[in-house]
Each structure stands twice: as structure tokens, then as C-alpha cells.
Design a protein that fits this description.
Layout lengths: L19 E3 L2 E3 L18 H18 L3 H29 L1 H9 L1 H11 L3 H19 L5
Antiparallel strand pairs: 1-2
Keywords: Membrane, Transmembrane, Transmembrane helix
Length: 144
């Protein structure tokens, strides 16, 4: 670190270089290192993810005997998976263009980026639920 460096104690932002520093090395701008516990529960991802899981569960149970409901289940699951993939790609491109193209072209790298490189817990939660939904769809009997 250079002499006279001024760092933010919450996020590690270096005013001299304009970069975020974590553990003495530059890091991507993103979530501060100190978690903010002042956020109300309804402004977190958990209740909305619970709503998505509940909606998927209801549509699946109704769709076992009703093909249009099963189509609704498949549409909601597909929409969720595509949305999560787009969000992950946006975060990867914010990291760097090279990281974004790797995540775009190599799907397993996108998973690596989300869980190892990114420090965004909400992204990890969204992507993890997407993986579980994808695995669940593979084991479900969607056709009759």
C-alpha cells in the first residue's frame, strides 16, 4: 500500500487509487466487507426466493394432472433460470470483460465465478437455487 493511502473502513475503498482493497490486495468493487444488518427482512432476497419456490411447488403439484399447469411450471422455472444466468453474467462483466466472456462462453466458469470469485451473497443464493431447480427438473417426471 502506498504512503498516505486513505481507506474506507466499511468497504476498503482506496481514495488514492479508486480501487477496493481487501486483505491488502485490490478487489472488485461490490459488496462491502462489513455486512449491513440494518436491512429489513422484506428488502432481502429470502422471502422472494421462498415465494418462487412456493409458486414452483404449487404449479408442479397442480401440473401433475393438468398439462397447462405443467407448462406454467416449466415457464416459471425457465424464466427464473434465464434471469439468474443474466444476473450472473452482468456481475461477471462488471468484474472485467475477460471474466464476463469466460462466464458467457464456459458455463462451468460462471458457476466458479459466482461461488469463488464474487463476494455477493445474494448472487450465490440465487444461483444456488437455480442449480437446485435445474437438478430437480432433471429428476421430475414432467411428461405423461
Amino acid at each position: 500500500m502506498g504512503k498516505g493511502a486513505v481507506l474506507c473502513t466499511n468497504c476498503g475503498y482506496n481514495l488514492a487509487t479508486g480501487q477496493r482493497t481487501v486483505a491488502g490486495r485490490p478487489a472488485a468493487l461490490g459488496k462491502p466487507t462489513a455486512p449491513n444488518y440494518d436491512v429489513p427482512w422484506y428488502k432481502t432476497a429470502y422471502p422472494y426466493l421462498g415465494g418462487v419456490v412456493l409458486l414452483l411447488g404449487i404449479l408442479y403439484l397442480l401440473g401433475r394432472n393438468n398439462p397447462p399447469m405443467m407448462l406454467g411450471f416449466a415457464a416459471v422455472a425457465f424464466l427464473y433460470l434465464v434471469t439468474v444466468q443474466i444476473i450472473a453474467l452482468v456481475f461477471a462483466f462488471k468484474e472485467s470483460v475477460g471474466t464476463g466472456f469466460l462466464a458467457l462462453c464456459i458455463p462451468i466458469y460462471c458457476t466458479y465465478f459466482v461461488f469463488k470469485v464474487s463476494d455477493n451473497d445474494t448472487l450465490k443464493l440465487l444461483y444456488g437455487l437455480g442449480i437446485l431447480i435445474g437438478i430437480g427438473i432433471n429428476f421430475m417426471d414432467l411428461g405423461h
